[in-house]
Amino acid sequence: MTAKKHMSEVPMIQRVAAYLAILVGYFFYCYNFVIIDYVRPYIVEAYDGISLSDTAQFYTWQSVGALIGALSCAWFATKFGKKNTLITITALNGGATIINMMFTDYATWAAMRFIIGVSLGGYFTVAVSLMIGLFTPTVRGKLTAFASSMFSVALMVMGAYAAFISSIDAPWQSLMWIGGVPPLVAAALMIFVLPSDKKVIAYGEEEAASNEASGEEVKKGSWGEMLSKPYRAITVTCLLLAGLNFYGFQFFSGFVTTYLREVREFDGATVGIIFSISAFGSLFGAWVWGAIADKYGRKVNAFGFILAGVMASLFFVAPSDVMIGSLNMLAILGLIYNFGLSASAVWGGYFSELFPAHLRSYGAALFHGGRIIGMWAPMVLIFIQERSDLQTAMWGSPIVWIVAGLLWLSLPETLKGGLFDKSKKEKAVA
User: Where are the transmembrane segments (predicted)?
Assistant: First the structure.
């Protein structure tokens, strides 16, 4: 058997190219995940027989798919290799999106959102575990945070493009089509630039590789082990935290375009501008929180969620006609809200760090595993909205963010020397 080489022996230019290819796929993972939220009011208007409640179910079907994708792709990555698994699910993302737009009925949309969800949940799980193995652990927070900032870039591109097509009266379906072809191109690029995990030892996996070389049985990891006594409490807490994240996101971001159109009565161009400017907060926020996490620890970022809760509250009570410079106040409040929310950009690496190397993919999968809890969020909001109004239902968001921030603070700190590192305090006492 040919001996594996270490990731440090792979040329830096190839590792950077691999990271960039993963970023491209990550952009469209983010884009195709949130596009259903943006086009929700347009779907209701354009397609007979599809109601606002039905569009909430599309998100639920997508979430069920993401849950299955995250949980199963952790196993597929272990069995068939991370590189092969990532290429397959990236291509599936683009292909299913193209098929989605060929139909206008509820059943096909629900089926395609489910399949897209499978690819998206799997993408996060495998992409995170691959990218953190490309470089040394000292830059892990920044790497995962920058990748997570693609979510913000996707929102900004989506909002700006939506404002553009609205200004030229182009069909809203253009927003959907742009999520189809590029993932197929990204999958093709990955074939050539991603190092094979079958031939290369990633950073952080040296001990497992050493055990394999010495003939010891290599631990493969399983969901049963994740729920065993040493890891059960952390696994359940991560799932609950991730679930609350989806509730907070859906209760605000998932219906904000509907809110701005129906409650605030803004036109399509204004909605697009507010949406795009707000998303910019997540873009630079992810970089800031990534640097904070690498310097002060992963748990410090929990305060970003508390900030998001405060900003969401102010968003609901701020008047519609107040301008700050040339920007509507709601755009500024949304920008700060998304800045705080982007503190979770480190979760992929952080959830992985909470577990040993052979459970790394399973740890990353916990983010989408939270959809066991969060998949019902849109329908819960619709249930409340039908018995009150949309704005009342959306007030659940700030409550969720503050509770989630406090829950985050209950998890262990994984950065040695971080502000919340217990070993540092114990050493000082000794």
Answer: 16-39, 59-78, 85-103, 115-136, 143-168, 174-194, 230-249, 269-293, 300-318, 330-350, 362-384, 390-409
Nearest to 85 by CA among 428, 314, 389, 365: 365
Q: How far apart are CA 145 and CA 286, in angstroms?
A: 5
Taking each helix axis as running N to C, give the angle between helix 52-80 and helix 377-387, from 0 to 180 degrees, rounded to the nearest 10. Answer: 170
**Cα 123 to the center of its chain, rounded Å:** 10
- In this structure, is the dihedral angle defined by the CA atoms of residues 385, 390, 391 and 396, taken in order, positive or negative? positive
Nearest CA to 414 out of 406, 422, 405 is that of 422
- Written as six digits, the tokens of 29 are 């993972």
Separation between Cα atoms, residue 57 and residue 230, nearest integer Å: 36
Element of type H or E holding 217: none
Q: Model pTM?
A: 0.68
Angstrom distance (rounded) from CA 53 to CA 330:
26
d(CA 397, CA 245): 9
Both tokens assigned to 74: 């952790």
Per-residue pLDDT of the chain (430 residues; tens, 9 = 90+): 457 788 888 888 999 899 999 988 888 888 888 787 778 778 888 887 788 778 878 877 888 888 888 888 878 887 888 889 999 999 988 888 888 777 778 888 888 889 888 888 888 788 888 887 888 777 777 777 788 778 777 877 887 888 788 788 888 778 888 888 888 988 999 999 988 877 888 776 666 666 666 666 666 778 888 888 889 999 999 999 999 998 888 888 777 877 888 788 787 777 878 877 777 787 788 888 888 988 888 899 999 999 999 999 998 888 878 888 778 888 889 899 989 988 988 887 788 889 887 787 788 788 877 877 877 777 787 888 888 887 788 888 899 999 999 999 999 998 887 787 776 555 543 4
Question: Which two structure tokens, joined as six digits, stand for 323?
Answer: 């301008």
CA distance 165 to 175: 9
Under 8 Å between Cβ of 351 and 363: yes
CA-to-CA distance for 127 and 133, rounded, in angstroms? 10
DSSP-derived secondary structure for 114-152: HHHHHHHHHHHHHHHHHHTTTS-GGGHHHHHHHHHHHHH
Cα–Cα distance, 369 to 22 (Å, whole number)? 21
